[in-house]
Write a structure and sequence with these properties.
There is one protein chain. Strand 6, helix 6 and strand 7 form a beta-alpha-beta unit. The longest helix has 24 residues. By secondary structure, the protein is mainly alpha-helical. It starts with 9 loop residues before the first strand and ends with a helix. It is elongated, with a radius of gyration of 33 Å. Helix 13 runs antiparallel to helix 16.
Length: 921
């Protein structure tokens, strides 16, 4: 998809103040309605961003992809309701499955369920329930079991997040990172999730948005494995109807919480659990020996489960046999592990019961940098086939040495992970490094397959390293498969990058960052992508690989552009150009120049933008890279249009369109059609503009791209209004407004509101027009869009003049024209001058009005904008008619009629002919 114009929209709420962290779009848009939607922001499309902390994929995110050369990769919208329309109700359920091994904790359950029930019945806010206890006591199992029991009381969703507070080898999940996942899970589009360099401000902003989203909901949130109250506090919903269950090894106390301790099981309950899991009847077991067994493992559910599994797998053993083996295992541990011997002995007993090849496999699971894994990752870690890895994982699960999670995924309990890592540390010191290398190589091979589905045809894709050819990868046969897999593995892959960087495996860091770039560009959050590409750039500097450095800096620049951090984007992209020049990488240089041109376009540095795109185009032509040529031409065409060089804009965009069609690039084709439609609208070719907009809309419909459908509807509505179909315009803009509101796309929504304001003004409802235009003006200012602000001010001046607010109208015009002149938008300036001339004429100062019409006429003729030329001629004629009396100004009026007729603007023709009718009679 030829997607341009990054949007990163997020409102930061901190200390009661609302601060714009991300500016949403172009600061250089022009004023006329026909100039806005398509060419300002080839908005990014939808992709999933989901719960990844525990590997539980949860849909919900609409990521709007910003455009870049080979990074304009189309992802069709995906919805959290599995195929229902975006407006359908969504109930998010990500609790791990309830376990059959849960044993009676009637007192604790009664306390929890009773507390929740009582609060709900009294209409009181639900307190946070903190479940603490020692490792292995079953805190998570208890919380999940309680969550399933209470799920019907929380119909708006049940969510689970693992905060990795005490996970060996993993740093605790930062609150801001967890909030990004939660917001995505409840359907917040990526551009609306706050990002920025101030971690504290971003976390506060995300927390405020999270509280707002759950304010009127009844949802259940389990925050598992919390490290501190500070970590979890920002995640607490603000609504009184939400229940939060927190598990932690620490006592996290606050005044509003209910603290529940989950200790080791009472001996009788531990014995009951052992009997149930052992597969033996109670009569066949010596209860006294079983009692001693469970006491030896501290009556911890984890240890009891492991011991029972040992007995179940050895039918010839008696409980006394198992007791003897456990005592021997405790003795083997010695004093080094004396403090942990109660449960570690059960691990040791279970481990030593495994076949040697399964022991090796289990050890290597401890090396996995991520949290949860599947058979493919297991195969990479264990150097076995996927089929064998699956057998190992199933056997380890049956032995209670790993936990199973939805989607055939597995996870080691933190204690078992630590135990596995300890075993591995006793062996080959390089085995850890080799295991990380193997799993990184697996991910690179899988990402190469995934990128084949999401990177545009002809674009350069990161290649898998040597040795990846024999790696078994998942069946990723469709875009939907790819998105689901990427969301599931995102956190694991990023954890692998961190581990590889810590082990100085810099080549793998660079490769993984490049392979993840296409997905992160589309799915965000972009501050996560910034961190990744900074790490890759440092890794490339360590290796001295200038090409890799250029790639990392270019990606960093692109993401910075999406965040509207334009100075940082320019710095990174200039550094990328220098890195590419150092190794004579012309393709890389061309891509970076193309991106620089886009940034300069967005900041209204039009001459620099045109120069960068022209240089990029020349390099692409030398290389014979057709997609790059099309992209540079399309961006060059948009720059020309912004400079009111309409002939040059049509020429460049038409050539781009031809290449996109040659390549079969439907997104590129649709976007070029849209931009051509905008230019044709500006030059008065309304029939051609309408056809282009309709053709673009049809392609977006085919691609199921609702964001761009809405933009095409807005543009179609502009043409309808200008050609007299006011009700058709109202319908188109209203439909676009509904789409943008539904999808959470604030910039597009602001456009629709402004267009509807113009429709109300031409329909004679100036008061409603003012209301709508002021709403749009506020939205554009919040988004940092100067062009949108100028367009709204221009129309506000007209509407305020109609209701007699002369001073307010003049103020709006003066502020608007200052912005337009700063942007170099001469067509927008001509429109505003005509509006101001009309105000002066109708308020009794036709001489001043005539001066403004003369200025507008000169501009309109210079840039060949016929609609503003006709409006200027009409204004000049009406001024002469007013000053010199009826019968004067006829030549100008008839000249205006000629242009209006050519444009098909029938209403304007009728108005003038009514004025001239008495004279004609």
């Amino acid at each position: 998809m030829r997607l341009r114009r990054g949007i990163a929209i997020a409102v930061v709420a901190a200390g009661g103040a609302v601060t714009t962290l991300l500016v949403g779009l172009v600061t250089n848009a022009v004023s006329d309605e026909s100039r806005w939607p398509g060419w300002l922001g080839w908005l990014q499309e939808h992709a999933w961003f989901s719960f990844v902390v525990l590997g539980v994929t949860m849909a919900g995110l609409t990521a709007l992809l910003a455009g870049l050369s080979e990074t304009r990769d189309p992802l069709p919208p995906m919805r959290a309701d599995d195929g229902a329309g975006p407006g359908a109700a969504q109930v998010l359920r990500s609790l791990p499955r309830d376990t059959a091994a849960f044993t009676d904790r009637a007192t604790e359950l009664e306390q929890l369920v009773g507390s929740v029930r009582a609060s709900q019945e009294r209409g009181e806010p639900l307190p946070v329930h903190v479940i603490d206890g020692m490792p292995g006591a079953g805190k998570t199992t208890f919380a999940v079991h309680a969550g399933h029991l209470l799920s019907e009381r929380f119909p708006d969703g049940q969510l689970f997040v693992n905060l990795n507070g005490h996970t060996p080898g993993r740093t605790p999940v930062q609150a801001g990172e967890a909030l990004a996942s939660l917001l995505a899970a409840v359907g917040v589009p990526t551009p609306q999730i706050p990002v920025g360099d101030d971690v504290g401000a971003v976390t506060e902003a995300r927390a405020a948005m999270w509280r707002s989203r759950l304010a009127d909901k009844k949802a259940l949130l389990i925050l598992d494995n919390a490290a501190s109250y500070r970590q979890l506090e920002p995640l607490l919903p603000g609504g009184s109807g939400c229940l939060v269950l927190v598990t932690s090894r620490k006592r996290l106390v606050a005044n509003e919480e209910v603290v529940m301790s989950v200790d080791a099981l009472p001996p009788d309950h531990a014995v009951d659990l052992f009997v149930r899991l052992s597969g033996r009847s109670a009569d066949a077991l010596d209860r006294g020996v079983v009692g001693e067994l469970v006491r030896l493992c501290g009556c911890l559910p984890l240890g009891v489960s492991l011991l029972a599994a040992r007995l179940r797998h050895h039918p010839s053993w008696s409980a006394e046999d198992l007791r003897g083996r456990l005592v021997a295992a405790r003795d083997r541990l010695g004093e080094l592990r004396a403090g942990e011997r109660a449960v570690t002995a059960t691990f040791d007993l279970s481990y030593r019961d495994l076949a040697p090849e399964r022991q090796r496999f289990f050890q290597r699971l401890g090396f996995f940098p991520g949290t949860d894994l599947d058979a493919h990752v297991g195969a990479a870690l264990g150097e076995v086939s996927v089929a064998m890895a699956r057998r190992h994982l199933e056997a380890l699960y049956d032995d209670h040495l790993i936990d199973e999670h939805p989607g055939s995924r597995y996870r080691l309990h933190d204690l078992l992970r630590d135990y596995a890592r300890g075993l591995a540390a006793e062996g080959d010191s390089m085995d850890h490094v080799r295991a990380v290398e193997r799993v990184c190589t697996y991910y690179l091979a899988a990402l190469a397959v995934a990128n084949g589905h999401i990177v545009r045809s002809g674009a350069m894709m990161p290649t898998a390293p040597d040795g990846a050819s024999g790696v078994e990868t998942p069946a990723l046969e469709s875009r939907a498969d790819v998105l689901s897999w990427l969301e599931t593995e995102r956190a694991n892959i990023l954890a692998c990058v961190r581990r590889a960087n810590g082990l100085a495996l810099y080549d793998l860091v660079v490769r993984l960052a490049a392979a993840m770039a296409p997905f992160l560009r589309q799915a965000g959050p972009w501050d996560q992508a910034v961190g990744l590409h900074r790490t890759a750039a440092e890794a490339a500097r360590h290796t001295g690989d200038q090409r890799a450095l250029g790639d990392a800096l270019a990606e960093l620049g692109v993401v910075r552009r999406f965040m509207a951090a334009y100075p940082q984007a320019i710095e990174a992209l200039n550094d990328a150009v220098a890195a590419y020049e150092a190794v004579d990488d012309r393709r890389g240089k061309a891509d970076a120049l193309n991106q620089l041109g886009i940034v300069w376009y967005l900041t209204a540095d039009n001459e620099d933008a045109a120069r960068a795109q022209t240089e990029a185009l020349a390099l692409y032509r030398e290389l014979g890279y057709r997609l790059g040529q099309a992209n540079a031409l399309a961006d060059l065409g948009m720059t020309h249009r912004q400079m009111s060089r309409f002939d040059a804009a049509v020429e460049a965009q038409s050539e781009a369109l031809a290449i996109y069609r040659e390549l079969g690039d439907r997104y590129g084709e649709a976007n070029s059609l849209r931009d051509l439609g905008v230019v044709h609208c500006l030059t008065g070719a309304y029939d051609l503009a309408a056809r282009h907009h309709q053709d673009a809309f049809d392609i977006y419909l085919e691609l199921d791209d609702r964001v761009h459908q809405a933009y095409a509807l807005n543009e179609s509505g502009v043409v309808r209004r200008l050609t007299g179909d006011v009700e058709g315009a109202r319908t188109a803009h209203s439909q676009a407004l509904a789409y943008f509101t539904e999808l959470g796309e604030r910039f597009g929504r602001a456009n629709s509101v402004r267009h509807l304001g113009v429709v109300e003004r031409v329909s004679g409802n100036a008061t409603e027009a003012i209301r709508l235009l002021e709403e749009a003006l506020d939205a554009y200012r919040e988004l940092g869009s100067r062009g949108g602000e100028a367009a709204s001010l221009s129309e506000l001046g007209v509407a305020r003049g109609i209701v007699g607010e002369h001073d307010g109208a003049i103020e709006a015009f003066e502020r608007g024209v200052a912005i337009l002149r700063g942007l170099g938008d001469r067509c927008g300036e001509a429109e505003l001058l005509n509006h101001r001339g009309t105000l002066l004429l109708t308020s009794g100062d036709p001489a001043a009005g005539r001066r403004h019409f003369d200025q507008a006429l000169a501009l309109a003729r210079d840039i060949r904008c016929p609609l503003e030329e006709a409006r200027s001629l009409e204004g000049i004629g009406r001024c002469e008619w007013t000053v010199d009396g009826p019968g004067h100004g006829v030549a100008s009026l008839r000249a205006a009629v000629t242009v209006y007729r050519r444009l098909g603007v029938r209403a304007a023709v009728d108005d003038i002919e009514r004025l001239l009718a008495p004279r004609s009679g």
